[in-house]
Specification:
Number of helices: 16
Number of strands: 0
Strand content: under 5%
Shape: globular
Structural class: mainly alpha
Number of domains: 1
CATH topology: Growth Hormone, Chain: A
CATH class: Mainly Alpha
Amino acid sequence: MSQPTARPRLHYAWIAAGVTFFTLLAAAGARATPGVILLPLGNEFQWSRATVSGIVSINIFLYGLIGPFAAALYQRFGLRRTMVAAMALLTLGYGLSTVATQYWQFVVLWGFAVGAGSGLAATVLGAAVANRWFTERRGLVMGLLTASTATGQLIFLPSLASAVTSHDNWRAAPWIVAGATLLAIPVIWWLMRDDPRDVGLRPYGETGPVETAAPRATGNPAKYAMRVLFEAVRVRDFWLLAGSFFVCGASTNGLIGTHMVAAAFDCGIPEVRAASLLAVMGLFDLVGTTASGWLSDRYNCRYLLFGYYSLRGISLLFLPTALLGPVAGLGVFAIFYGLDWIATVPPTVKLTAEVFDREKAGIVFGWVVAAHQVGAAFAAYGAGALRTVTGSYTFAFFSAGALCVIAALIVLPIGKARRLGPQPAAA
C-alpha cells in the first residue's frame, strides 16, 4: 500500500520570495549605476550635470510609469515571463550603452530600455509576490523584498565605483550590471512560479484544500490599468498616498541615489569613499526596511509613516552641515538616513491594501509608485539644474527636507475616507 507523499517542510512561497529578492537585487545594481558614472560620463562627453541628469530623470520617470502597467502584466502574462523580460531589457540596455556615443543613444538605452526594465522589476513586483504568495508574514516579506534594493546597493556600489576608478572608464560599471542581470534570467525561469496553485499549494499561512487555478486575466493590460486609475482618483486617500510617495521618491533615489556621490565629490570626498557611504546607508536600510515590515504587521501604519518622513526630513536638513564637517557627521547621517531610506514602502503597501480591494490594490500601488518616480525624476533633474546654476546642492537638500515634513502631515488622515470597492472585472 503506497504511503501518502509528505509535504515539504519549506513552503514554496519562500522560494518564490528568494528568487524575487535575487531579481530585485540585480535590478538594484541597474538603478545604482547612474550615481557612480554621473561624473565620468559627463567629463568624457563634456556634458553638464543638468544634461546628464536629464537622461537619469527619463530613466526614473519611466521606471515609475511602468509600475501600474507592470502589475497588469503580472496578471496577464504571469510573474515569471515578466521578470525574465525585465532582466533582458536591463541586460540589453546597459550592454549596448557601452558602445553608445551620441546623446540620443543614451536616452534610448538608459532612459527608455533600462527605465522600462527597472519598472518591471521594482517595488511593484515585490508587492505582487507578497500579496499573491503570502497571507501570514506579508508585511515582513514586503520589508525583505523592499530591502533588496538596499542590499543591491551594498553589493554593487563599492564594486562599481572601484571598477570605474581602477579602469578609468565608466563603461566598466554597465558591463558588471549587464552580467548580473543576464545571470538572473536562468534562475528566474528555473525556479519562479506564478501562483501557489501552480505547485499545488495555498498561499503561506492559509489552510484547507487547494483552490482550482483561476483563469489568467484577459484583455488589454494597459486599458485595465487605466480603468483602475480612473476609479482610484475619485478616492481622496489615493491622492494622499501618491502625494506622500512623490516626496519619498524626491528625497531618496531622485536626490540622494543620483547626486550623493557628486555632492560628496564637490566637498572633497573621493568617489569610492562616497559610494561606500551609500553602501553603508544600504546596509542600515536593509535593517530598517525589514524592521518596518515587521512593525507594519503590528502597529498603525499612518503613525509609522509620520515618524519615517519626519526623521528623513531632519536628516536631509542636517546633510549640508555633515558634508562640510568632520567625517563622523557623515557617518551619523549614513546611519540615521539609511535606517529610513525606503522604510516607507511596507506601511504604504499595507495602507493601499486597506483602502482598495485586493484585486485592484496591486495596480493602485503601481500608480502610487508612479507618483514616487515622478518625484524622483523631478529631484534628479532639479538637483542637477540647481547645482549647475548655484554651484551647490544645499538648496536641493533643504527643499527635500521641507517636503518630507509636509509628507509627514498628509499621511495622518489616510484610511479615513471612502474605499474603492470591488468592481466588475474587465472583459
